[in-house]
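Side project, low priority. Logging it here so it doesn't get lost.
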Amino acid sequence: MSLDDPNKDAYARGKAFTEDTNPGMEDALRARYDALLPGLARDLVEQNGRLYTRGVLDQKTRELLTIAALAAMGAQTRPQLKIHVAAARKLGASREEVAEAIYQMSLYGGMPAMFNALNAALEVFAAEETADG
């Protein structure tokens, strides 16, 4: 993608990215929120297309940055954190890379936030093991 026009085809890029990393997300958001906020699901997918597909940084790095930010924000981000840990894993991030991104945030969000995030990541890792059978 060219940085000259990051908004061009943002929805299409976001849809492809989202379906690759979190299949069914747009439909799930639409089912839950459309009655109250029509278009919210599409807006989020389009925003993902603007941010996650810009180039410059690869998608795995962007996911690790997202994990770090969510970890620093604390326990209220647990559901989103688990989604992004799973997405990072799909994009090739190792468990150790995820853990390091979270651990780094102990300096910025504090140890309790880091432990909450690490526990959320461990849940994702355990679910992967169960899925792998």
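Brief comment: The longest helix spans residues 111-132.
Revisit when time allows.
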